[in-house]
């Protein structure tokens, strides 16, 4: 595998290969994922009989279950690129019926091809679409996945381990110092990215490959100790681990998360019915910025295709009507679920294209 070819993720929005609906596996960890801003999502979507909602980040199904609890007569299309998450979907199918819950395995950019491959239409099919981006609690809790700074395990970080894509270990052991620096700077906004990249290269030359989360954690911590740098404080007033931003950067790069989000939001516009709701729960500034960019940017739209065959011109329109407010979790929710402390919910409605 030539990992250098994946560096294009840093600068361009790319297409990903088609994934098929996969057979489910047993959940890899027994700890459930607590859905963030669940009641706010239900209030926004206002589930009603015969409506269809797409959960683009199914996870353990907490948001989908909340919508079904509010109105069992809705339909859910549940997508997740992590095959282990689909086992939670099987339980949801048992509780509400397979005709109410459809499970899909793939990334955001796969969903159109998956639906078409199953003989379903893809345009204007959903009343609401939800993105709860980033890694899930199950992924962080399972040390074998390599997402957690605190749990020692193999340095993997792939959300879809069926794909022939680089692991985080591949990235830190095979890329040059300048490329590691770009990843840490761009995706981690890490102030010591240059020093960390340099020490990673020195470590692997002297000590051998960095293969575990513990190895990487210790390298980054050494950089902070040597620089006598102050660690960031999160919204709960707690000091972040020195390696938190490095782990974030590698995870985003390995899973192509920002390009996936950007393309996924474009696809959501296709899938939504006119006036349908798109809700995005994001957790850091990079995700916030991508969401804001897509929701607030004009796009070239061919009016001949969307309006009338007699009108041959391109219009630059805002395809989304945005709610400018940002919804954040209550103090009570943050106390009950600390993971929610940095969550922000942004909402936009699909506009109807008119003459």
TrEMBL record:
<dbReference type="InterPro" id="IPR023397">
    <property type="entry name" value="SAM-dep_MeTrfase_MraW_recog"/>
</dbReference>
<keyword id="KW-0489">Methyltransferase</keyword>
<dbReference type="InterPro" id="IPR002903">
    <property type="entry name" value="RsmH"/>
</dbReference>
<dbReference type="GO" id="GO:0071424">
    <property type="term" value="F:rRNA (cytosine-N4-)-methyltransferase activity"/>
</dbReference>
<comment type="similarity">
    <text>Belongs to the methyltransferase superfamily. RsmH family.</text>
</comment>
<protein>
    <submittedName>
        <fullName>METTL15</fullName>
    </submittedName>
</protein>
<dbReference type="InterPro" id="IPR029063">
    <property type="entry name" value="SAM-dependent_MTases_sf"/>
</dbReference>
<dbReference type="Pfam" id="PF01795">
    <property type="entry name" value="Methyltransf_5"/>
</dbReference>
<keyword id="KW-0949">S-adenosyl-L-methionine</keyword>
<dbReference type="GO" id="GO:0070475">
    <property type="term" value="P:rRNA base methylation"/>
</dbReference>
<keyword id="KW-0808">Transferase</keyword>
């Amino acid at each position: 595998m030539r990992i250098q070819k994946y560096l294009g993720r840093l600068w361009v929005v790319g297409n990903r290969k088609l994934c098929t609906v996969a057979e489910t596996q047993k959940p890899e960890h027994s700890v459930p994922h607590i859905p963030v801003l669940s009641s706010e999502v239900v209030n926004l979507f206002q589930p009603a009989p015969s409506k269809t909602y797409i959960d683009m980040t199914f996870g353990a199904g907490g948001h989908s279950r909340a919508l079904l609890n509010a109105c069992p007569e809705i339909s859910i299309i549940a997508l997740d690129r992590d095959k282990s998450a689909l086992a939670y979907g099987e339980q949801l199918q048992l509780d509400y019926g397979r005709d109410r819950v459809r499970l899909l395995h793939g990334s955001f950019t796969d969903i159109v091809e998956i639906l078409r491959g199953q003989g379903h239409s893809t345009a204007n099919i959903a009343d609401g679409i939800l993105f709860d981006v980033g890694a899930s609690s199950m992924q962080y809790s399972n040390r074998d996945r390599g997402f957690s700074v605190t749990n020692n395990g193999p340095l993997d970080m792939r959300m879809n381990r069926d794909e022939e894509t680089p692991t985080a270990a591949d990235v830190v052991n095979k890329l040059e110092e300048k490329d590691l620096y770009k990843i840490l700077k761009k995706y981690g906004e890490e102030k010591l990215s240059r020093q960390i990249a340099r020490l990673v290269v020195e470590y692997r030359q002297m000590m051998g490959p960095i293969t575990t989360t513990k190895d990487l954690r210790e390298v980054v911590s050494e950089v902070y100790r040597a620089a006598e740098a102050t660690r960031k404080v999160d919204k709960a007033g707690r000091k972040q681990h020195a390696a938190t931003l490095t782990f974030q950067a590698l995870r985003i790069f390995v899973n192509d998360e920002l390009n996936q989000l950007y393309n996924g939001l474009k696809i959501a516009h296709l899938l939504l019915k006119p006036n349908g709701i798109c809700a995005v729960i994001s957790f850091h500034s990079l995700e916030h910025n991508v969401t804001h960019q897509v929701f607030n940017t004009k796009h070239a739209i061919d009016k001949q295709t969307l309006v009338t065959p007699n009108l041959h011109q391109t219009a630059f329109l805002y395809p989304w009507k945005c709610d400018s407010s940002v919804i954040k979790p209550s103090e009570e929710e943050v106390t009950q679920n600390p993971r929610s402390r940095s969550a922000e919910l942004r909402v936009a409605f699909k506009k109807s294209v008119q003459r």
